[in-house]
Amino acid sequence: MPTFDLGNNRIVYSVIKGTSRSYTYFRFRPDLTLEVVVPRGRRVDVEWAISQKVGEIRKEYQRAVKTRLILGPGTVMYDGRILKVVYSEATNGLVPLLDSGELLVNTTDPRRLKELVRRWFLKESSTYVVKKVRELAPKVGARPRTVDVREIGKWGYCTQSGRLSFSWQLIALPEKLREYVVFHELTHLVEFNHSPAFRRRLAAVCSDFRERERELDLVRPYDRLSLD
Fold first, then answer.
1. Cβ neighbourhood burial of 16 (10 Å; 0-12, 13-18, 19+)
2. Residue 228: inside a domain, yes or no?
């Protein structure tokens, strides 16, 4: 595969066709190889395109190096901790050993592992969310109508009717990031936007929310999530 030098690092890259007919953009995979996504239906000098965006690519590389994976090669993040996945034939399903930093599983099939983790996280996230929303809602002055944990494409979202939904992967985050997500969504029940008024109200209950946002943005779930 083709490569280029980025400072002291040799970057392997591949070229794929995107859906845009106008733009070339760059994204790093978890293994720190680069995808160059070129416009569909147009010829692009990839080496020239890379040379024109070295600064942008360097920033994305630095970001990718700091990114933490919820499900990495042989690892699972839980409560902000990285657990090593250990195969154990005697284990019934999945058993977390938090003191030793291990996750015992009875399968080597990646799809089966993901399903076991999904069930575990769904249960733990549900328990956490119910308790945390009850604790934090009075501080925000919000009254959610319903609260649930689901398979969604965001860390959390709310509706104007008062429904709060959170990702089943929430329990993977360290406590301060989980708390931030809950504060964020509760604040939306009072300010249903991302206006200065929303940020002021969020800052009143979570003064370091910007720092927590930056940390949250460096966590990569199974599928990329965001906040609404």
1. exposed
2. no
Mean pLDDT of 185-196: 95
* Helix or strand (DSSP H, E) at 185: helix 175-188
Q: How many CB atoms lie within 10 A of CB 132?
A: 20
- Please state the domain count of the chain: 3
Structure tokens that stand for 21 in this block: 């007919």
Coil, strand or helix: which one is 227? strand
Identify the DSSP state of 177.
H
pTM over 0.90: no
- Annotate 38-59 with three-state secondary structure: ECCCCCCCHHHHHHHCHHHHHH
**Structural domain for 147, as ranges:** 114-220
Closest of 132, 74, 61, 120 to residue 94, by C-alpha: 120
Q: Based on the fold, state whether residues 7 and 88 are members of the same structural domain.
A: no
| Comparison of pLDDT for 42 and 196, the residue scoring more | 196
Provide CB contacts within 8 A for 49, sequence distance 6+. Answer: 24, 36, 38
Q: Give the ranges where 13-171 is alpha helix by DSSP (H).
A: 46-52, 54-66, 110-140
Q: Which residues lie closer than 8 Å to 66 by C-beta, 6 or more apart? A: 218
pLDDT tens digits, one per residue of 93-140: 899 999 999 999 998 888 888 899 999 999 999 999 999 999 999 999
Q: Do residues 145 and 47 share a domain?
A: no
